[in-house]
Each structure stands twice: as C-alpha cells, then as structure tokens.
C-alpha cells in the first residue's frame, strides 16, 4: 500500500511539473517583442546623407530620378543637377552631404575626381543653403595590404602619406560651407576599424597635432563594420575618435531573423553599443539608416531578403525612430546612407515612382 502512495505522489508531482512547463516563457517575454514608438521631435536633429560618386547606370536599376539620369565622369556632374540636389536636400531638412575623398598620394586620379565633385557642390551652394563634410575612404588595399601583423608604422613612407592625405584637405575643412560640431569640422573615416597600427592612439594623436598646427581641430567619426560587437575594435577606437558610426545595418541584410525584426534588432544593438562606447571609450554614437535596399541590381540571382520601398515608407519611419532613440543627446547627429546610391536602391533622392515621399519622411521625423 505504501508503494501505491509513493507512485501516486510521484504522478502528482510529474503532472504539476508538466503544467508549469506549459505556463513557462512565451513570446511575450522575448526581448524583441515590442513596438517601435513614434518619438516626437522637440529639438532639431543634425542630419547628413552620404553622397555617392558612381560611374554609370546599371541596366537592372528600375528607378528613374526625378531630375533625370545623370553622370559624373571624373567628378564633373551633369550640368544643373547639383543645384537641384541641394534644393531637394534642403526640402528634406538635410543639414549636409558627406562626400568621399580618396588618398591624394596613393589614388591621385580618384582624389582629383572627388575634389572636382566637392568643388561642384561648393560652387552650386552660393547661398549656403547646405553644408558638406568629408569621409576619408580608407582601405588597407590603398595602403598596400597593411594588417595586424604588418602595421602601418613599419612603412615610414605610407605613414607619412597617411598624414599628408589629411593635411591636403585642410582648406576644405576651413571652408565656410563645411559642417561643424560646435566649432570643430566634422570628419568621417570610412573603414576606420582596418587602420592597423601598433598604437592607433599614437596615430590619431599625431594626426590631431599636425592638423592643429594648421589651425584645424576636427571632430572625428570612425566607421565600424555592420553587426559587429562594440568591444571588437577597442584598440582601433579608444582614445582615437570622437564618435563611432556603424556601416548601415539596414543594407545588405542576409539574415532572415534580422529582416523580420530589423527595427528591434537595430535598436537593441545600438542601445548596447552606444552605452558601451560611452562608458568604455568615452565617445558618442551616430545612428546610420538606409531608406531601402535591393540585392537584385548587382546580383539578380540573389535570394537574400530585400528591404523594399512601400507606399507609406513604414519601415523607414520605424528606423528613423530607432535612430532618434539612439542619437547622442550632445551632438544629435543622424546619418542617412545615402542620398543617391541608385546602384543599391538605397537612395533618398526623389524618383519618378515614389516622388518626394522619403524627403517628406526625413523632414517630419527629424525637424520640428
């Protein structure tokens, strides 16, 4: 009889254990299970957009610019286009365009092309409606394959050329049209995480010292590659830059989990990254968002998830609010990638199919 009682008690405990499992964690407990709320604008954000220099129109590009298809051979933009771009940028509430510049020492032809495009902007912006900033297009390829085991200091010529690249642009940094953070010219460094050096802090200290001797104290924003943890590049950023931005999370999405919950995943990543950068590096964070993205233009057979445009622009609106939630309270910088990247369908620029929809979204989301 005693054995019967023991078996009955065991059965009771097992049944109740099963019931507890049935009332365990649910989708409601998931950290990503929340809505992205509309963040009201009580103070204007400082919004920039990357301006793309491209060689031609891919046959797979379906969208057509409202201003018509244009070219920029050797940096010479089709006449009449830049004033229209500036007018549209102002309409969107953009504060500045960011133009890429390549090494005048190691990529001289492209540097001349970049400089020509920037000069075209300055000449077209006679009334000072918009500002511009520059992004140093750094790559290890430009510098002959420097790496963690082959840092830039090992080649004195390359190191000298690196510093000279920045000294060459000082006249631009002093231009009245140039975007500033406070009284400091805003300078982006693309692929900053690949500046392999024995001491990145020493490199940046020398760079700042040389620029200061020429009358310039820049606010430097370094790029970190997309979907990477904030601690990965501590040696490349700590004591080096004033702020960090990520390569666009909302472009080149090749993971379906990220596609389904993109705003929430970006929000959680940025919240953690922003907090980590602030507490451990003492630097600000600059959110970077993209209006749309298509793999099909460059890779028609791609099966990766597409980030398409919609009649309402609902996804982009959510990403605008994620950006506002994670912008620095000190600088309020927001980046959009990009203005005219038609080769990836990530452009903010108006097209015949969607008109000025995305300009209007940006103006409403970031300006009072």
UniProtKB/TrEMBL annotation:
Gene3D superfamilies named among the record's database cross-references: Glycosidases
Q: Which Pfam families match?
A: Glyco_tran_WbsX
Molecular function (Gene Ontology), one example? transferase activity
Q: What is this protein called?
A: Glycosyltransferase WbsX
Entry keyword set: Signal, Transferase
Q: Secretion signal: which residues?
A: 1-19
């Amino acid at each position: 009889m005693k054995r019967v009682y023991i078996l009955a008690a065991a059965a009771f405990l097992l049944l109740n254990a099963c019931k507890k499992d049935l009332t365990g964690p649910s989708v409601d407990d998931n950290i990503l299970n929340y809505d992205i709320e509309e963040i009201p604008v009580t103070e204007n954000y400082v919004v920039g957009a990357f301006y793309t220099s491209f060689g031609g129109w891919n046959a797979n590009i379906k969208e057509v610019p409202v201003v018509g298809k244009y070219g920029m051979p050797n940096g010479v933009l089709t006449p009449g286009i830049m004033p229209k771009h500036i007018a549209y940028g102002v309409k969107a509430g953009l504060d500045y365009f960011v133009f890429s510049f390549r090494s005048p020492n190691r990529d001289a032809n492209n540097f001349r092309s970049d400089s020509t495009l920037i000069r075209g902007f300055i000449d077209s912006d006679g009334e000072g409606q918009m500002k511009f900033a520059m992004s140093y297009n750094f790559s290890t390829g430009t510098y002959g394959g420097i790496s963690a085991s082959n840092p830039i200091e090992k080649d004195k010529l390359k190191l000298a050329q690196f510093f000279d690249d920045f000294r060459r642009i000082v006249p631009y940094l002093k231009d009245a049209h140039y975007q500033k953070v406070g009284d400091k010219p805003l300078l982006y460094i693309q692929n900053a995480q690949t500046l392999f050096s024995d001491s990145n802090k020493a490199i940046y200290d020398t760079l700042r010292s040389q620029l200061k001797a020429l009358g310039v104290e820049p606010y430097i924003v370094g790029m970190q590659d997309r979907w990477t943890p904030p601690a990965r590049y501590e040696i490349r950023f700590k004591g080096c830059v004033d702020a960090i931005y990520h390569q666009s999370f909302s472009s080149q999405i090749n993971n379906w989990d990220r596609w389904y919950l993109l705003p929430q995943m970006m929000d959680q990543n940025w919240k953690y990254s922003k907090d980590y950068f602030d507490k451990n590096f003492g630097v600000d964070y600059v959110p970077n968002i993209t209006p749309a993205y298509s793999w099909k233009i460059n890779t028609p057979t791609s099966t990766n998830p597409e980030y398409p445009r919609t009649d309402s622009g609902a996804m982009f609106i959510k990403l605008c609010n994620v950006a506002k939630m994670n912008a620095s309270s000190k600088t309020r910088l927001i980046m959009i990638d990009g203005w005219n990247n038609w080769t990836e369908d990530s452009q903010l620029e108006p097209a015949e199919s969607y008109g000025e929809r995305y300009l209007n979204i940006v103006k409403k989301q970031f300006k009072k």
